[in-house]
Structures are given as structure tokens and as C-alpha cells.
Amino acid sequence: MPQEPGRTRAWILHPDLTREDTRHAPEYALAEAVSLAHALPGLDVVGQGIVRLAKPVPATLFGSGKIEELRAQFAEAEVELVLVDGPVTPVQQRNLEKKWKVKLLDRTGLILEIFSDRARTREGVLQVEMAALSYQRTRLVRAWTHLERQRGGLGFVGGPGETQIEADRRAIDEQLVRLRRQLDRVVRTRELHRAARAKVPFPIVALVGYTNAGKSTLFNRLTGADVLAKDMLFATLDPTMRRVKLPDGPEVILSDTVGFISDLPTQLVAAFRATLEEVLEADVVLHVRDISHPETREQAADVEDILADLGLSEDVPVLEVWNKIDLLPETDRAILSGRASREDGTLALSAVTGEGLDVLLEEIATRLGGTRQRTELHLPYEAGRKRAWLYEQGVVQGERRDEDELVLDVLWTPAQAARFERM
Predict the structure, then answer these.
(1) Which residues pair with 244 in a beta bridge?
(2) What pLDDT does 346 receive?
(3) 212 closest CA partner among 238, 230, 228
(4) CA 46, 51, 55 angle in degrees (round to 5)?
(5) N or C terminus: fewer CB in 10 A for the chain?
(6) 296 near 336, Cβ under 8 Å?
(7) Whole-number pLDDT of residue 44
(8) Contact 225/242 with Cβ under 8 angstroms?
(9) What residues of the chain score a pLDDT lower than 50?
(10) DSSP readout, 90-139?
(11) Structure-derived torsion over alpha carbons of residues 312, 210, 132, 71, reported in degrees to the nearest 10
């Protein structure tokens, strides 16, 4: 079959390590890896398969017989790139590329490629560059002919110098320092924006969920925005915010964030922490699930793990949003809708058809209202901004002046108290 110009023929392998702690079934893991490959422009997936592994071979990951079998398949299909859906050590990558005469990417490398292609904002680009450099630093192995030891010292007599591998590592470290400084400036700007939002009496509602769960579609439906939403993993990376008026309730800021995925590379979790801090600042979190997916429970567990790693407070209400009920058979849809109505903090809806959105908005308003608590606050006279914010919120029941402070009788919700503490 003639190949389109500029496109790369790729083959996807999912190593199935027969372990009890594997959360995802191999067939669904392979399907997700294929979706990841389709998310990268310029790839033609010409083959895929699951490779059963009782124990990975340290030098080559796969056994010699399987390597030879795959080599013949790759040669016949004229494969140029092999995507291994799992971790591959630098030594394994080098050896497999030599034996198969192809380029090889592991799961982390593939996700980094996708993120690099999709990042649009300055912050997103810097985060991806830092993650990619951190990943490349671990790939520095003695795999090239230019790694002979270089001469060091002054004049004709000197020490043994440094290897090229050490020079490469130092260059990466220097670039990481430069990127970190640039990112710190961008993050400080984001923190200023966040501080400015804290002065405005708008609660924050953050959308989180597994990638392709329908967060951006729901965001567009609620806000009338035009955020890219398509059936593709990591269709959007950069966070987007819009104001939404709740029925018979306050205005809120709705935040759409990057989708999560199983085995998200640690480099990316660290790099995107600043972006994901929008979730930690939220008054309500909407955990959007693709309830039609066969592994919706496993995907939800992955999201919960990442939220726990980020340090999401237990005080922040999390609503489970069972999205895509329009893709279910009528009987299953009725059963799930009934189940959701009986479970506290769970709602079934369709972001595409709009079914259940009115109930979602009412639930958000209820959660933001919460149980009001009476508190006595003591503020210094110079805390005029905080006093003004409390009056904007309509929570001040009374006020008296002492010699050196203001004493306010406040009736507010836990969410309002948390926002006040963050000011």
C-alpha cells in the first residue's frame, strides 16, 4: 500500500505483564494506546497487538523469539515507528531499535509528543518543554559514537575531562533552569490573576476527569464557549475559564482542565502542577466520567489517585457527573439515572443532548450554598479589602468597633470561609 507523503507507519504493542495489581484489562489498555497514537498527527497505525510477558527481559524487554517474530512483521509492513504502551528503559530502547531497525517510543514519550503538539499557551509550552527535557535526561545512555572521553585541563597536560554524556546532561540541566525561571514568571502572573479573582465574589467550579470523558463538551454546553471538543484523547490541554450564571443562584467561574489518564508520566504531573492548582482552589469539583465506557470505574479510580496526589482537600465538595448517558441503551440509561438520583453527590446527564444539565446546575448552587455557620471575626482596621469582600458576599450580620479592631458577626458557608482564608 503506497504511503502518504509526510506520514509515518506505526505499530503499537501493549506488554501484558501478568500481575495482580494491573487495574486495566489489556484489550482496553491497547485500545487506549491506539487512541493516543491517533491523537498524534502524521501517524498511520498499520498494526497492533498484545504481548504476554511473565517477566520483562532487562536488556530487551521481550524474549528473543518474540523479538524475531515481531521483526519479521515490522519488515513486511514497512514499519518506521514502534509504540510500546508501557515503560521502556533507555537500554531496552536502544537494543530494540537496533534489532528492529525502527524508531521506538514508550508510553511516556508518546504522551509527551502529544502534549508538545497540543500546548498553545506560553505556560503550557514551557511545562511540556520542561517535562520533555526531564524525560530526555533519563535517556542519556552510551548509545552514540560521539561519547568518547574528551580532553580536559589547560595546555597539553590535563585531567581526563568529561564524557559527552556528562556535557549533554549539564546542557539539559542548564536549559531546565532557564525554563523553570521563565515558568516561575508565568506562574506568578497566574497567581496574580488568581488573587484578583479572589477579590471578586465568584466561586470556582472546576471540571476534572479522565481524558475524553466529555469535559470540554460539558464546558461548552454550560458556558456557550467554543473550546475544542472532539472524540480524541487530550483534545485540549490549556485551562479555560468562563463565567456562568446559576439559576436562582450566584455567578460562578467554570474551569476546564487537562484530562487525566492512567500511568500519567510523573514528569507531566510535576510540570502541570501549577495549572492543576486551579482545581485545588475550587469551591466545587465536578468529576466528569464517561459512564458508557467499559472501564469507567477504573478510569474514575485513576482520576481519584491523581487528585489525591495533588492534595485536594477533603473539605472541597466533589460531584460525580455520569456523562454520555445518551450512548447507553434505554434500559441501562433508566437504571443508571435511578441509581444516580439515590446516591448523594452523583448526577447522570448528557452534555451532548443537554439531558440532566438543569439538575446539575441546581446541585452546584446547593453545594455552594451549603450549611451556613455563624462565626465571630476579628479584623484589624487596615483590613478594608477583606471587610468589603464580606459585605459583597452578604454574610455580615452585625459589626462593632473595639479599640484596635473590628468585630464582625458572620453567617457564611464553608466554601465562603475557605475563600476568605485564601485571600
Answers:
(1) 252
(2) 95
(3) 230
(4) 150
(5) N
(6) no
(7) 92
(8) yes
(9) 1, 142-162
(10) HHHHHHHHHHHTSEEEEHHHHHHHHHHHH--SHHHHHHHHHHHHHHHHHT
(11) 140
